[in-house]
Amino acid sequence: MTLGKMIDDNTHKGDAGIALIHRRVSQMKQVWHERTIDPGIDGTIELRDPATGEMSNQHIFVQSKASDRFPGETDTKFHYICKERDVDYWMKAGHNPVILICSHPETGEAWWAHVQSWFSDPARRATLRVDFDKSTQRFDKDTTPRLFAVADPHGKAHTPVADHRAETLVSNLMPVEFPDSFFSATASTSSVGAIFAAQRDSPYPVRSDFVLSHGRIYAWDEIAGTGLVRSITSGSSRTPVGELAAGNGDERRLFVRLLGAALQHDLSETCRWNNDRRFLHYRPTDDLSERKTLSASGHPRIAFKGYYQRKDDPSRKQFYRHAALRYTFTEIGGEWFVQLRPDYFFTSDGYKESPFADEYLSKLKRRERNPAVLGETQLWAGILQGDVEPTLMNHDGQDRILTFGPLVTFEADRGIDDQDWLPPAGAEENPDQMALDFEDLE
């Protein structure tokens, strides 16, 4: 018996994949143009401004691949092996961006990658393989801003407008309270190093909450009964702190230096001041094991951890990442705040700075996104507030000079999705190509 005309399952599945793309593009309020002849491009997306309806004359070429399952697929990722002639054809598109969309038509799922960005790396092009992250490369109605970024990186086609919605913005400012007076005395030396040496030779506690300026030592606590007494020529005097905080430029700068000295003293049990980098960083644990602290969000975050340069070669030299903090004290509207600027410090052995520290920092910053920056800010906010959590070592047990309030928040009636700030899918650095692995970044 002769069968009639047939359409095989692959053809039907391919058509369903195109239909899914058409539906997604329509949900984005963009325009889909299907091609009847397919030399490696199934259609184009013509971009329009969703707010005004104005067509941009910006086009994105689309190649669709539909399947029930892709190679190496898990709940979080998969990959696709392209044909060499297809890659060659796509890379000849010049200024016209080409995206590859892989889909599961039966479940209505689709993911995308910007072909030219991905295969601009010769190592990737040699493999003909495109890796997909299911969480960051979904092709859905929220993809619109990233498509505009691919088609028009200079933003001429469309400027996204913030949505009207309530949103809480978390700043990096914390209100700070300090003692109402300070102490000062004439110094017997002009060297800060000599003052510390004299303290260590005395039977009294060594204090770092002091400033040496113009022949006088300024401190938050009574100088008598501390190691500082070895470096003064007469008794100390007590002065209201307002005389510095509300004084002239030189006096206010001295006050800010005193605040910095107090902060360094308050965190001296768990953090170390790095004079070369001009920041505080977490000390290593005695056995160089991982160390976590409780952040202001209530979640533990890593403050110190050791890494191997490559997971596939554990014999490579180890390095350590320390949470670090740059800070600025500033007065706003008659109230004093500390501004937190999280950073990182890299060592070879927990103490000595790694010769590759700048390289490590650069690679980490390229991967760092807003949730990670917010998390690090909340980490330091938790430390400064001194939340008691013995197992996480947030509190060192010593009396603190400064008291910090929670991070200042603001209410806004406009908001922008974090997704809109992401680079085009496929343009992110491939973690397998990086020398580092910061899997706990967020």
UniProtKB/TrEMBL annotation:
Q: Record's Pfam families? A: DUF4365 (PF14280)
Species classification: Bacteria, Bacillati, Actinomycetota, Actinomycetes, Propionibacteriales
Q: Where is this region: Disordered?
A: 420-442
According to the entry, every stretch annotated as the DUF4365 domain falls at 16-148
InterPro entries, sorted: DUF4365
Name assigned to this protein: DUF4365 domain-containing protein
